[in-house]
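May I ask for a protein sequence together with how it folds?
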Amino acid sequence: MTAILAATPPVPGGLTERTKHRLLDLVKRHGPLTAQDLAARLEVSVPATRRHLGDLQEQGLVEARTERPSGRGRPQHVYALTERGEGAFPKTYSGLCVDVLRHVAALFGEDAVTRVLASRTAEQARVLGAELPAALPAHVRAEVLARHLSEQGYDAVVDRVVEGGQETLYLVERNCPHLAVARQFPELCAAELTLYGELLGTAVTRETRIACGQGCCRYRVG
């Protein structure tokens, strides 16, 4: 396997870790496999394979399932990629999304892209809003939002900066999982800014933007 996305836990170098890369690649190419099948394909022992699988399970990249071979026979334990594991392989979703948005703009006008993204923002606000009640302290709400964003690949953290005895919250995204889209459709970034303001219940100001060549997306909260 030659490409790991930023959202995937880093796998250190070395022979052992290269074996784990090969293991992930086998599961990806050949579907759910037993530890015995993987050991035979890797040409390593079954106990060693199970150790690698255990490490990958801890990283959230593979999961164990119980299946019947071809729907018959005795149940057996097999290993499959999790959604996070699937994310370790290159995808072309960004290219597809850009093409779709271009067609939306061409067919229905430039403002149609804004309306589509506004609808998406409204849905996200409904889904996440229940986990960010107004009764929560501001920094807790920001932390919950950062956690959700990190699960989506943004590698988000909250900075609490104290100046002159006054604390300021910053939501910082150290990765943009939709960079190709954001560069061509700034409406996406505008929609995200609106979403964060709605979820946090206060003014949110973007100070830096990855799509503009800066190192992170940094939002001042409040």
Remarks:
- The first helix runs from residue 15 to 30.
- The chain has a mean pLDDT of 86.
